[in-house]
Amino acid sequence: MKILVIGEKCIDRFVYGICNRICPEAPVPVFKPMNSTENGGMAENVFNNVLSLGVECDIITNKNIIEKIRYVDSRSHQMMMRLDKNDFVETEDKYLHVNSRLKGYDAIIISDYGKGFLTEGDIELISKDADCCVFLQTNKIMGEWCVGVDFIKINEYEYKDAKYSLDNLKRNGHNINLIVTLGEKGCRYNGKYFKIKNRIEVRDLSGAGDTFLAGLVVKYISCGDIIKSISYAQECATKVVQKLGVSVI
Q1: How far apart are CA 154 and CA 186, in angstroms?
Q2: Which domains occur in the chain, in start order?
């Protein structure tokens, strides 16, 4: 099996420290950093999760460096602030550089974080040119451009923003295979709810959606059953949320 991931990558950096007092100059906490970790995030986290599940994978992604820096209290594990740097991709990578590289895969994952790497037109062309199943996660508002995608994975917040557009697509006769993740409540697909079977200790939700998507696609291309694939994806996601930071399965 072989999968292609297309989308924006970033560096996820977690800075852990302690906070014992409030700043005298302003009503903000004083944070003392103690240690930090970093790893590939966004599309690169999807890519790394696919690899960790034992499947060969390629990635087409941005060249510039996007950073997400999270400052986390070591004792409570509460995030105190997130700092995003270089949070946009210049249009140096156009679809013309991508479309000749879509062949020879069992699935394509479009991991679109809306940073400018892929336009709606790019995603539409990828879904038309691909000769395999295409999965999409995106924070763009749905439109006619996404009807060629086989499965779309979004979270509940993104679903609420896109609901009006999705209803319009349905009224126009388009069938959208939509998987909506609901955090600790599980996910929803085709009117059915998939609850998390066992109670778990959630330590960090960062990157859980990427792990869910990677597990979903890996399982689907091996069995062709989306229901079994959703259950497997949830198992993968429940493991990483019990770890600190952005983790792979």
Answers
A1: 12
A2: 2-240 (3.40.1190.20)
